[in-house]
Amino acid sequence: MSLAPIRMVRSALLLVVFLISGCASTRLIDNQVNSFATQVIAPGASYQFERLPSQLANPVNQAKLEKLAEHALAKVGLRRQNAAPLSVQVSAIQRQETFYTENGLNIGWGLGWVWGHGGLSVGSHGPLFPGLDSRTSYWRQVSLIMRNAAGVVVFESHASHDGIWADSDAVLAAMLDAALQGFPTPPSGARRVNIEIPR
């Protein structure tokens, strides 16, 4: 089999993938959120960040996370200020897993594919799209805990998301927005909160 038909198939498939990906300008970050509010926090209240000893050991990453949280908290009317009576503790954890797909179907004439996130190959020339037989998934969780001047927890919220997006900053920012949805009186119980962000 000559290489010309293979190149044509590869080019056509790349064009289809490009057109499909170009049609969607946003992506959906679907979050599982659970919030608890024991006291209504007044609009415009000021806060300061509080760090755990483990967070003090990694100040660069914690400062980045707090910057994202500061932006999300500003959206709900809170403002950051030194020595404020309200303290906010923000944390995030992430797990990463790579899955490999091995089951597939050969349809003859050297053509075949692997189901799911698999690869397509033509003859003995190898896969047209190497790496499609593996998929990396990212599970993340953000937590926000607010305490009043007496140290009593007045607001607590957790948001978790499992997806394919590797850009942590954009995803964490969306998750913090989800965790604060309905603030200062969020619905009780676990709920799903969808946040759309640009691609």
Indicate how many domains the architecture comprises.
1
- Measured by DSSP, the beta-strand proportion falls in 35-45%
CATH topology value: Double Stranded RNA Binding Domain
User: What proportion of the residues is helical, as a percent range?
Assistant: 25-40%
> How large is the count of helical segments?
4
Structural class: alpha+beta
Written overview of the protein:
This protein has 199 residues and is an alpha+beta fold. The protein has one domain (26-104, 134-198): Double Stranded RNA Binding Domain, CATH 3.30.160. Helices cover 27% and strands 40% of the residues. The protein has a 7-stranded mixed β-sheet with strand order 3-2-4-8-9-1-10. Strands 5-6-7 form a 3-stranded antiparallel β-sheet, with no helix packed on it. α3 (59-75) packs across α4. The radius of gyration is 23 Å and the shape is globular.
TL;DR?
By secondary structure, this protein is α+β, with helices and mostly antiparallel strands. The chain has helices at 3-23, 53-56, 59-75, 168-179; strands spanning 26-37, 46-49, 79-80, 86-100, 104-108, 111-114, 120-122, 134-147, 153-163, 189-198.
